[in-house]
Structures are given as C-alpha cells and as structure tokens.
Write a structure and sequence with these properties.
single chain, alpha+beta, Herpes Virus-1, 5 strands, about 15% helix
C-alpha cells in the first residue's frame, strides 16, 4: 500500500455547491461533519454520520480524494491509497 497519495494529479480546484451534505439536505437527515470531493465539488457527510454520503459518493463515482470541510481543517483523504495528507489551504467556505 502506498504511503503517499498517488492521485494528487486528479485534484481539481472545486468549491462546495451546497451549504451541507447534498443527500442529507434532500432527505432531511442530519450530518456530523462535511467532506468535499476534490474531483467534482460534491459535498457529503463523514462516516460518523448516518448517511456516510462522502464514502458512498466515492464508491459511486470512483473520485479518489476528498477533504474536510470543517472550519480550520486542511486535511485530505485518498480512498484508493487509504492515506491522509495535509493541504496548503484551509477548507473553503460553504455557500449561503
């Protein structure tokens, strides 16, 4: 298993398109923390949330890298390589 993300080249400059987890907002469900897909900008909830929509998005799309959308956090996770890493910039703000 790699010790670094081999999918960094697939990261795109994206912005969150919704003010919360897309699926949770649609079905009226609560989330714990938010994650941003760095391939398409999908906002999903973390694996501590009931829906686990960020991980479900990965399984559906195979987009490999997501980042935390929590204020002040700058870490990312590569699902394929199962490795976390730090990004240079903090999480972008959510739209209002």
């Amino acid at each position: 298993m790699p010790t670094t993300c081999t999918h960094i080249g697939q990261i795109s400059p994206v912005a969150p398109g919704t003010a919360g987890c897309e699926e949770c907002l649609r079905i009226g469900q609560r989330w714990v923390h938010l994650r941003l897909c760095l391939a398409c900008g999908h906002v999903g909830c973390c694996d501590s949330s009931i829906g686990k929509h960020a991980t479900k998005h990965f399984h559906r799309t195979k987009h490999p890298v997501m980042r935390s959308l929590e204020p002040g956090e700058s870490w990312a996770w590569c699902y394929v390589d199962a490795v976390g890493f730090e990004l240079a910039e903090p999480a972008p703000p959510l739209p209002r």
